[in-house]
Amino acid sequence: MARLDFPKDFVWGTATASYQIEGAYQEDGRGMSIWDTFSRVPGAVYNGDNGDVACDSYHRYEEDIALLKKLGVKAYRFSIAWPRIFPNGTGELNEKGLDYYRRVVDALIEAGIEPCATLYHWDLPQALQDKGGWANRNTIDAFVNYAEVIFKAFEGKIKQYITFNETWCISFLSNTLGIHAPGNKDLQLGITVAHHCMVAHGETVKLFRKLGTSGEIGTTHNLYWFEGYTTKQEDQDAAWRLRAWNNEWFMEPTFKGTYPKALVEWFEAKGGVVPILPGDMETISQKIDFIGVNFYSGGYGRYKKDEGLFDCEEVQVGFDRTYMDWNVYPEALYNVLSWAHKEYGDTPIYVTENGACYDDTLTADNRVHDVERTTYFRKHFIQCHRLIESGVPLKGYYAWSLLDNFEWAEGYRKRFGIVYTNYETLERHPKDSYYYIQDVIKSGGLDV
């Protein structure tokens, strides 16, 4: 039996997002978000579910922080709901919204847990969407103004900021594939939204530096490892296009100030053009302190004409699958972070989300024996250790998610939590995976 020890300063954490857990959607001056609107569109979300109550963490945050403290994490990644701070996106500031996050941040610090705040985890104020949302460049200015309020309000308390969570989802999943809010299906719109979010990220980093805000700032991209089913060039090219849509399309502007030429040309052939204005690429490629990577899966693909946007067909090769029907491919985490390090240099990396959805059952004694999820975490922890030993600057890992919660278009039927949420009583029950992670953190590693 081998022992895998993690560095003493490795950051173990867990993560959540505001709309998925907070509830209290009309309390204390909060404005409507695009998810409040989208979840009310018939057929948009499974079972017509919404985040009106969610896990009620708005009222139960102390209970949730107690669970974090018991877990033993060093840090907690949460997101701030823009509509709580500016109900209309701009204009009058809602102090009650700020006060809520002050209470959360103070309670985290008191518990010895570092707050890591995501500024945008998809809940755009509906008032801004009514004016074009992220397709309107004015939204960039509104976001930077909102970020400035947060930086000043939490100076010295929040020491790590993430500007955007998963820009691919904000843009293409939501505006080209139409699966998430606001539910549009337009390639050009997805390209435009992606670019404007990237510019907003860069402008926010510039502001962070200008203000002299203490701490670190970065962004989070959801990276996906996809490789050719064969060595045929057409299969390699097709797999690269699908992978680059998630990876290079966002990483290259972040670190190199360019978009991948082959994908730009592919989009142009389909009528999609990146709306770059002078200075945009320089703004996007502002130096960041770390890169967050959300990782869940990977796979194999081969060329098939007219298959999706990229003439690429996914080929199943016998992976186990989660209840999201995603491949369980732990080695892909090693592959994609090794690639990112090789391509983009020594910027510190955090796995800002990683986890799995399974069909959990609460026993009579209020336990959840989630063997598959525990195994999933174990296998991914091993890959994290491989990365560190290989010289990749992996500094931390945030399990997704602390709680079962509103899983976007899947409603409440898909559970990612290491803590079971009873949606009728709102009681929380730690699962076996929670206790497994607790043991890994306490012991500083794992036996394999």
Report on this model:
GO terms for molecular function: beta-glucosidase activity. Pfam families: Glyco_hydro_1. The active site is at residue 353. The chain is α/β, with parallel strands linked by helices and 448 residues long. The chain has a single domain, classed as TIM Barrel (Alpha-Beta Barrel). The protein has 16 helices and 15 strands. The strands form 4 sheets. It has an 8-stranded parallel beta barrel with strand order 2-3-4-5-6-8-11-12, surrounded by 4 helices. A 3-stranded mixed β-sheet has the order 7-9-10. A hairpin with a 6-residue loop joins β13 (419-421) and β14 (428-430). The longest helix is centred in the middle third of the chain and has 25 residues, at 187-211. It is globular and about 55 Å long. The relative contact order is 0.14. The mean pLDDT is 98.
Characterize this entry briefly:
This protein is an alpha/beta fold and 448 residues long.
